Amino acid sequence: MKKIKVLHAPTAVGGNPPALSKALRKQGIDSECCIITQNYLAYEVDRVLVPTGARFLRCELTRLKFIFECLFKYDIIHYNAGTTIATANIIEWPGKTKDVSSLKRFVYSAYLRGLQYFEVSLFKLFRKKLFLTYQGDDARQGDYCRQHYAVSIATQVDETYYSDASDAFKRQNIRYLARHCEQVYSLNPDLLNVLPASAKFVPYSHVFFDTWRFSCDGLMADRPLRIVHAPTHRRVKGTDLILEALESLKQEGLRFELTLVEGLSQAEARKRYEEGDVLIDQLFAGWYGGLAVELMALGKPVMVYLREEDLRFIPEQMRAELPFINVDPLNVKERLREVLTMPREQLVELAKRSRAFVEKWHDPARIAALISDDYHASTRAPASV
What we know:
- The strands form two sheets. A seven-stranded parallel sheet has the order 3-2-1-4-5-6-7, sandwiched between helices. It has a five-stranded parallel sheet with strand order 9-8-10-11-12, with helices on both faces.
- Helix 1 crosses helix 13 (364-380), helix 7 (239-251) crosses helix 11 and helix 9 (290-298) packs across helix 12.
- The protein is built from 13 helices and twelve strands.
- By secondary structure, it is an alpha/beta fold.
- Helix content is 43%, strand content 12%.
- The chain is globular.
- The chain folds into two domains: 5-205 and 364-380, Rossmann fold (3-Layer(aba) Sandwich); 217-361, Rossmann fold, CATH 3.40.50.2000.
């Protein structure tokens, strides 16, 4: 039987696309991950199309060439981060001043939107099967969050982070891509409130357990507890509230060490994670990120805000086994105090539960097998007109 050839593109956000591609190869699928450009996190991928610092014209010609290359190389295109190879974004009309930079943004955004329509239409014309994974703010909308949630990222950021224009664009893009994709996936349960009813929740699948070794030796070491926090956006993760709470506890005489991880490559950051004991992740998103999965695999208990009403989207057994220390913006100081004064044996038990949880629910082989089934089902199905 001929192997299915799959492309994962156009980014490596959170390391999930390249890891899923690797896991699919173990399922017998000819899969590779190609990204447009590399960023400071430097996740390992199969191919980076445009080198860092390349000029605009080179970048766009390479993008266009790659779209045509895909016609003859892949059977399935699996998009991630809610976008296509043409990374379309909102089209912002030039302001009253109509300065050169705003005109350039307008023209470029319009070009990318048009290129996205061309790309998707071309792939459908050539009977390529399209899949799509949303990973967070690529689908999350400020107006929905403000209307339905008391605690959300939307309450922390300025009006440019979730604007009316970006919310409208996301809704339009979600509808457009869903019409042309065989299956839409979400790594965060809250996104299923704004995605099509047919969308599926799939857990992060980027941690291979043979390379992320469990160890809770640090939890039993005769030293202060090491708290890890790694914000990519301080207001989004609630960093200021966390630092304020820790400083207050320090003034009360509680002993701990804080490891703040920012601006490091994934490899450099991992060294810091391995030296830590407990992760405090994010206070507003309502779910845990890929970072939490990595730290749990290493044997670190995780503190994070889990939004109760969104848990209906995950499997009932997964919900029952969640091993997290639930923390929110109002109780962050009290929860940190509980952790800092908790018997180390209790933290070790939580570390073991955390590792068992990721082995069960975030197993790349298990998740790749489920997605592989969807791929094979799509290739057996009659082509849509």
